[in-house]
C-alpha cells in the first residue's frame, strides 16, 4: 500500500463519504427517537399481523415489533441502511479503479515506482476504510441514541455490535465483487452498470425468495440470504461461522481484483 | 538504454504494432515521428508497461518493461499523450503527490521548472487551460531528474515561447547525458533536438536513421514569387523540380539540393519566398514510396 496515495485518495473522497455517514447517522438517530411513540401505539402490531406473511417478511417484520432491537433491525438495517451501503459500495468501487483507467489518470499512478498490485491494494484500502467508517459511526450513534435519547428501552449492546460487524462483512463481500468488476473494465459506465445490475439482481432474488415457500430456493443464489437483520440482531445466526465465511470470501474477491488488474492490458 | 525488439501487438489485423525494432543508446535523443494513429502512443504504452506485447519485448536498462514495470519506473520520467490528472486537486497538490509516491524529497528542480514555465501551480486542475496542464505534465516528468525521459507529444498545447523553453530544457538534459524518447507529428520539432529518429506508419517502422541523413531526404516545397515573368521562365528551365502556379509564382521542391536552389534564386528578382506547410508524407515521400514498393 502506498501511504501517500491513500491519504490523498481519502482526502478527495472525504466529502462523499461524509455525506453517506451523515445520512446514515441522522436516520438511525431519528428512527430511535420516534421508537417510544410507535411502541406505545396499541394497534400497531395488529396492523402488521394483518398483512400477508410474505409481505411481513419483506418489510422485515415477521413477528411485529417486539423490541427496540427488532425495530432498529427491521426499520433501518432492513431498508434504508441497506440502500445506503449498496449505493456507496457500487459508486465508490467504480470511482476508485475503472474511472481512473477510463479517464487516464491511472497512468500517473503507475508511472511511479509503485507496482500495480500496490496501487490497487491502496484503492481497495480506501473503500474498505470508507465502509468501515460508515458502519462504525452508525453503530456508535445507534448505541448513543438508545442510551441517551430515549429511556425505558434497552438495547443489547454486544449483540448490536456483533450484528454490525456482520453487516460490515456482508457489504465487504459486495464491495469485493464490485471492486473486482471495477478492476476488470476500462469503461467506467460499463463497470458501474454491471456492479449495480448484479447487486440489484441479487436483491431481487432475495425479495422473490422471501415471498413464498415455492420460491425459497432462489435465496441460495444471493448474498443477501446471509443478511437477515432481525435474526442477526437476536443472535439467531451462527455469527462466527458466517463471519469467517464472509471474511474469506472478501479476501478472495479483493485478492482476485489485484491479480486481474496486474495481468491485464491498460489502454492508458 | 531503451531497446524495442520484434515488438508486436495486434489490435486488428491492420491495426496495432508489427515487428518493431529500434534502440536508443544512453545519452541519445530519439524522435519518434508518425501521422495520427500510426502507433506512437501504443509503443510508448508498452515501454511504460501498461500493455503486454503479443510478441517481442521492450527493455529499458536491461529490465523488461512488462515484467519489471515498477522497477523500470524508477528510471523514467513520463509525459502521457493525453494528460488527465486526479480530480479535485490543484497543480501543486498533484506534483507533491507524485513526489511522495516516488519517495523523492528534493523540491529544488521542481520549483526551478515551475519558475521557468511560469506556471501558477495553485490553480485547481479542472480550471487549467490545455497548455497549463501540459506544463504540469512536463514538470511532473522532469522534476525527479530521471535517467530516461519518455515524452508523448510534449509540445502539444504549448505556445511558441513555451515551446522554446521546452526545447532548451531538452537540450540541457541531453548535455547531462539523459536518454530521451519523444514522439511528434512534426519533423521540424524533432530536428532541433534529436540525434536520430524513427518514422512509424500503420504500426510499422518505415525509417530509422540519424537526423542528418533524414535531413537530406527531407523534401521542402518553397513558394517563390518573382517580379518578372522572364524569371519564371528561368526557374522553369532549371534542373530543380518546379511547378508553375501562376504568372509570377512557382513551387520549387528542394531535397538535399539547397545550394542549387539558392543559386537559382540569386539569378532572379525575388519578391517573396515562403515554405508550404506539409504533412509527413510529403516530407518523407522517399520512405513511404520505398515501403510501398517493398510490399
Ligand atoms: N486499446 C486499443 N484497442 C484497440 N485499438 C487500439 C487501442 N489503442 C490504440 N488502438 C489503435 O491503434 C492505432 C494506433 O494508436 P496510437 O494511439 O498508438 O496512435 P498515435 O501514433 O499515438 O496517434 P496520435 O498521433 O493521434 O497520437 C490506432 O488506430 C488506434 O485506434
Ligand atoms: Mg498518440
Automatic annotation (TrEMBL), chain A:
GO MF annotations, alphabetized: ABC-type transporter activity
GO cellular component: plasma membrane
Membrane-traversing stretches: 20-38, 76-98, 119-140, 160-180, 192-209, 239-261
Keywords: Membrane, Transmembrane, Transmembrane helix
Domain of life: Bacteria
Residue ranges of coiled coil: none
Protein name per its UniProtKB record: Permease
Taxonomic source organism: Fictibacillus arsenicus
UniProtKB/TrEMBL annotation, chain B:
Keyword Cell inner membrane in annotation: no
Record keywords, A-Z: ATP-binding, Nucleotide-binding, Transport
Keyword Secreted: no
SUPFAM superfamilies with a match to the protein in the record: P-loop containing nucleoside triphosphate hydrolases
Record-linked SMART domains: AAA
Superkingdom as given in the UniProt entry: Bacteria
Domain ABC transporter span(s) in chain numbering: 2-227
GO molecular function: ATP binding; ATP hydrolysis activity
Pfam family, one: ABC_tran
Family label: Belongs to the ABC transporter superfamily.
Protein name, per record: ABC transporter ATP-binding protein
Annotated source species: Fictibacillus arsenicus
Native organism taxonomy: Bacteria, Bacillati, Bacillota, Bacilli, Bacillales
Amino acid at each position: 500500500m502506498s501511504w501517500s496515495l491513500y491519504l490523498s485518495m481519502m482526502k478527495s473522497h472525504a466529502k462523499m463519504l461524509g455525506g453517506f455517514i451523515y445520512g446514515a447517522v441522522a436516520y438511525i438517530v431519528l428512527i430511535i427517537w420516534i421508537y417510544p411513540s410507535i411502541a406505545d401505539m396499541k394497534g400497531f402490531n395488529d396492523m402488521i399481523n394483518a398483512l400477508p406473511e410474505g409481505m411481513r417478511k419483506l418489510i422485515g417484520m415477521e413477528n411485529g415489533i417486539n423490541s427496540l432491537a427488532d425495530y432498529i433491525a427491521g426499520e433501518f438495517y432492513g431498508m434504508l441502511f441497506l440502500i445506503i451501503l449498496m449505493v456507496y459500495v457500487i459508486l465508490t468501487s467504480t470511482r476508485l479503479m475503472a474511472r481512473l483507467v477510463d479517464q487516464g489518470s491511472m497512468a500517473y499512478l503507475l508511472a511511479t515506482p509503485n507496482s500495480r498490485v500496490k496501487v490497487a491494494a491502496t484503492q481497495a484500502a480506501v473503500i474498505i476504510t470508507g465502509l468501515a467508517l460508515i458502519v462504525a459511526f452508525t453503530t456508535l450513534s445507534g448505541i448513543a441514541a438508545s442510551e441517551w435519547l430515549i429511556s425505558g428501552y434497552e438495547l443489547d449492546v454486544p449483540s448490536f455490535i456483533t450484528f454490525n460487524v456482520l453487516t460490515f462483512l456482508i457489504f465487504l463481500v459486495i464491495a469485493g465483487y464490485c471492486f473486482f468488476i471495477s478492476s476488470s473494465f476500462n469503461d467506467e459506465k460499463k463497470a458501474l452498470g454491471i456492479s449495480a445490475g448484479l447487486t440489484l439482481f441479487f436483491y431481487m432474488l432475495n425479495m422473490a425468495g422471501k415471498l413464498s415457500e415455492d420460491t425459497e430456493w432462489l435465496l441460495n443464489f444471493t448474498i443477501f440470504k446471509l443478511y437477515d437483520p432481525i435474526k442477526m440482531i437476536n443472535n439467531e445466526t451462527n455469527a462466527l461461522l458466517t463471519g469467517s465465511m464472509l471474511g474469506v470470501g472478501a479476501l478472495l474477491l479483493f485478492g482476485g481484483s489485484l491479480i486481474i488488474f496486474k495481468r491485464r492490458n491498460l489502454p492508458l | 538504454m531503451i531497446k524495442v525488439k520484434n515488438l508486436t501487438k495486434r489490435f486488428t489485423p491492420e491495426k496495432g504494432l508489427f515487428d518493431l525494432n529500434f534502440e536508443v543508446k544512453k545519452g541519445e535523443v530519439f524522435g519518434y515521428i508518425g501521422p495520427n494513429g500510426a502507433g506512437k502512443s501504443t509503443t510508448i504504452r508498452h515501454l511504460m508497461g501498461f500493455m503486454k506485447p503479443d510478441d517481442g519485448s521492450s527493455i529499458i536498462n536491461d529490465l523488461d518493461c512488462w515484467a519489471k514495470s515498477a522497477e523500470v519506473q524508477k528510471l523514467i520520467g513520463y509525459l502521457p499523450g493525453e494528460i488527465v490528472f486526479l480530480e479535485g486537486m490543484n497543480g501543486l497538490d498533484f506534483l507533491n503527490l507524485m513526489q511522495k509516491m516516488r519517495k523523492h524529497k528534493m523540491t529544488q528542480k521542481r520549483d526551478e521548472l515551475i519558475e521557468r514555465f511560469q506556471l501558477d501551480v495553485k490553480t485547481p486542475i479542472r480550471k487549467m487551460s490545455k497548455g497549463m496542464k501540459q506544463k504540469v505534465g512536463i514538470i511532473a516528468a522532469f522534476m525527479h531528474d530521471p535517467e530516461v525521459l519518455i515524452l508523448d507529444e510534449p509540445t502539444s498545447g504549448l505556445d511558441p515561447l513555451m515551446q522554446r523553453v521546452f526545447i532548451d530544457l531538452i537540450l540541457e538534459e541531453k548535455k547531462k547525458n539523459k536518454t530521451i524518447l519523444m514522439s511528434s507529428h512534426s519533423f521540424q520539432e524533432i530536428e532541433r533536438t534529436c540525434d536520430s529518429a524513427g518514422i512509424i506508419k500503420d504500426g510499422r517502422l518505415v525509417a530509422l536513421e540519424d537526423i542528418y541523413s533524414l535531413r537530406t531526404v527531407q523534401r521542402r516545397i518553397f513558394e517563390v514569387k518573382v517580379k518578372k515573368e522572364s524569371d519564371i521562365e528561368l526557374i522553369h528551365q532549371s534542373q530543380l523540380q518546379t511547378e508553375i502556379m501562376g504568372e509570377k509564382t512557382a513551387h520549387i521542391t528542394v531535397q538535399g539540393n539547397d545550394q542549387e536552389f539558392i543559386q537559382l534564386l540569386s539569378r532572379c528578382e525575388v519578391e517573396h519566398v515562403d515554405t508550404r506547410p506539409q504533412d509527413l508524407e510529403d516530407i518523407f515521400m522517399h520512405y513511404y514510396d520505398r515501403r510501398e514498393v517493398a510490399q
